[in-house]
Design brief:
Length: about 500
C-alpha cells in the first residue's frame, strides 16, 4: 500500500502548511494543560476560505485497483466533488451550491456534510475535509459567533468538556488549554461545581482532562473538597495521581500554606518507608513553582522552604536550583557548593545547575566559589558557560537541558511537548531547566509538566541577539519547514509513471 501512504502524506502535508503559521504563535495560558491540536477557531482563522459542503461525488475504485495505479492517477482517484452549502469565510470567493474539488481519503457516504478549509482562494488548496455531524455543524457555527472576550468563550466551551462526541470534547479542551489563566478565574461563579466533581471522580477520565478539571476546581473549589483531594494525594495510586501538578496546585490553593506539609512529606522528602516516584516529585515541584509565580496564595519565602527540601536529595536537586536562583534565594549558596563538592556518579549532573546558580548570584563570594569549584571539575564550569551563555537574563534561546546532558539522556518527549516560539524570549537557563526528561516509569499518558510564567526581570543579555532569536523562531524556521514540505510533495508527484497492468503484453 505504498501509493496509498504517499497520497496520505501529500494530504497531511497540505494540512500542516495551513496551520503552520498558527502553531508558531501558539501560547497557552492554562498552567497545567497542553493543547493537543489546533482548534476549529484557529483552523478557520488561518484559512482564506471556509465552508460547509456536502460530498456529492467521488470516483469508486477497489483497494487493489488503487494500490496498482500510478501516483498521478492515484491522486486523481481521491479527488471528490463537494457542493457548498454554507460559506463561513471568504464569501467573495465562494457561492452557495458551487461545486468544488478536494482530495478526500475517507470513507464517509455521499451526502455527508464536511467542513472545508483552504488557502489561495483563486486556486484553492484544501485541507483534508472534516466530516461534521449535525451537532458538530451547529457547534462550529456557534463558535464563529462567539464574542472575543476570553471568559465568555470559556463559558460556552465548558458545556462540551464531557461531550459524547470526541471531536467536540477535544476542541473544547484545547480552547481551555489555550485560554489565559485569568480567564479561567473569571468564570469562577459560572463553573458547575457538582458536575466538575463528577468529572474528577470518573476513573476513565484521561490525565490531560484531569489536569484541566483540577485547574478549574482550584478557582471554584469549596472547603469540603479538601478532604477528597487529601484522599487522592495520599492514596499512592498511580492512576489517581495522574495530573499531580494541577491536583497539588488545586489543593494548595484551597488550603494555603497549611497544606504544604502533606505535599512535602509525600512527594518531596525521600524516606525509608516512602520514596516518591520521580514523576510525582516533579509534579509537586511544578505546582510549587506555579504558586510561587502566580502569587497571592502562599508566600514565596515559604515555598522556597519546601523547595530546599530537594537539596537533601542530590540526585534530584537540579530540579529546583533554577527556581532558587530566579527567586534570589542566595541563602542556599553554601548548601549548593556542598552539593557540587560531594557529587558522585549518580548526582554529577547537579554541578552545571550549581555553577549557573553562582553565575546568576550578584554576591562577590559567588565568583570566588566558581573559581574554587572549577579546580574540582573544570568541565562542569565549561559546560555551564557553553550551554547557558546568559544565565541571568534573556538571550539566545536554548533547548538544551543541563541535567539531561549530564545524565547522558536525550531531550524529553511527551504529549505534544515542544518549545513554544512565543516563549523564546525567556532566560535561556529558565527555559531549558523547564524541560526535564521523562523517566522510564512515568505514565505514557502523563501530560508534560506546566511552564510557569516567570516574573519580569532585568535583561542582562544582548538585545540584538534576542531579536535575531525571535526572527529565527517566527520567520526562518517556518520558511524552512515549508520548503521541506513542498520538496517532499514535489518528490511524491514527480515519481515516474508506472505502467498499468493492462499495458503489459
Amino acid at each position: 500500500m505504498k501509493s496509498v501512504r504517499c497520497i496520505s502524506t501529500f494530504v497531511w502535508l497540505t494540512a500542516l502548511l495551513l496551520s503552520l503559521s498558527t502553531l508558531t504563535r501558539a501560547v497557552h495560558g492554562c498552567p497545567f494543560c497542553r493543547p493537543v491540536k489546533t482548534t476549529f477557531t484557529q483552523d478557520i482563522a488561518a484559512s482564506d476560505i471556509a465552508a460547509l459542503a456536502e460530498l456529492v461525488e467521488r470516483p469508486e475504485f477497489s483497494d487493489v485497483a488503487k494500490d496498482e495505479l500510478p501516483s498521478a492517477e492515484l491522486i486523481e482517484s481521491y479527488k471528490a466533488t463537494f457542493r457548498i452549502k454554507k460559506v463561513y469565510k471568504g464569501s467573495q470567493h465562494l457561492d452557495t451550491d458551487q461545486m468544488v474539488v478536494a482530495l478526500y481519503t475517507g470513507s464517509e457516504p455521499l451526502g455527508t456534510l464536511f467542513l472545508l478549509r483552504g488557502v489561495e482562494p483563486d486556486a484553492p488548496q484544501w485541507a483534508p475535509p472534516l466530516a461534521l455531524s449535525e451537532r458538530a455543524q451547529k457547534y462550529v457555527e456557534d463558535i464563529l459567533s462567539l464574542p472575543d472576550d476570553p471568559a465568555d468563550r470559556l463559558r460556552f466551551f465548558e458545556d462540551y468538556l464531557d461531550d459524547s462526541e470526541e471531536i467536540l470534547q477535544a476542541d473544547a479542551y484545547d480552547e481551555f488549554a489555550r485560554a489565559d489563566y485569568d480567564a479561567v478565574k473569571a468564570i469562577k461563579d459560572d463553573i458547575d461545581h457538582d458536575r466538575l466533581i463528577g468529572w474528577i471522580k470518573n476513573p476513565k477520565a484521561p490525565s490531560h482532562m484531569r489536569s484541566l478539571y483540577f485547574t478549574m476546581l482550584s478557582v471554584c473549589g469549596q472547603p469540603e473538597d479538601i478532604q477528597m483531594l487529601e484522599e487522592i494525594l495520599t492514596s499512592g495510586d498511580r492512576d489517581q495521581l495522574a495530573a499531580l501538578s494541577s491536583m497539588a496546585s488545586c489543593y494548595l490553593t484551597l488550603t494555603g500554606a497549611a497544606g504544604l506539609p502533606l505535599i512535602e512529606d509525600h512527594f518531596l522528602r525521600g524516606g525509608v518507608m516512602w520514596d516518591p516516584e520521580y514523576v510525582h516529585t516533579y509534579g509537586a515541584i511544578m505546582a510549587l513553582r506555579f504558586l510561587g509565580e502566580q502569587g497571592g496564595v502562599i508566600d514565596r519565602g515559604r515555598i522556597l522552604q519546601s523547595l530546599r527540601i530537594m537539596l537533601d536529595r542530590p540526585q534530584l536537586a537540579d530540579l529546583v536550583i533554577r527556581d532558587l536562583a530566579r527567586w534570589e534565594d542566595w541563602e542556599s549558596m553554601p548548601r549548593l557548593v556542598e552539593l557540587f563538592q560531594e557529587a558522585d556518579e549518580e548526582s554529577s549532573w547537579v554541578r552545571v545547575p550549581v555553577i549557573n546558580y553562582l553565575r546568576a548570584c550578584p554576591l562577590p563570594e559567588a565568583k570566588d566559589h566558581i573559581e574554587e569549584l572549577s579546580k574540582i571539575d573544570p568541565g562542569a564550569v565549561q559546560r555551564a558557560s557553553s550551554l547557558f551563555p546568559f544565565p541571568a537574563g534573556g538571550g539566545a534561546a536554548s533547548q538544551a537541558d543541563p541535567a539531561a546532558a549530564e545524565r547522558g539522556e536525550g531531550s524529553p518527549t511527551g504529549d505534544a511537548e515542544t518549545v513554544e516560539p512565543a516563549e523564546a524570549g525567556k532566560a535561556t537557563w529558565e527555559e531549558a531547566s523547564e524541560k526535564v526528561p521523562r523517566q522510564p516509569d512515568q505514565a505514557a499518558d502523563q501530560p508534560p509538566p506546566p511552564v510557569a510564567q516567570p516574573p519580569q526581570e532585568k535583561v542582562a543579555g544582548n538585545t540584538d541577539q534576542q531579536i535575531w532569536v525571535l526572527i529565527v523562531w517566527i520567520v526562518v524556521i517556518p520558511l524552512l519547514a515549508a520548503a521541506v514540505l513542498f520538496g517532499l510533495m514535489w518528490l511524491i508527484l514527480r515519481r515516474p509513471r508506472e505502467p498499468l497492468p493492462t499495458e503489459h503484453h
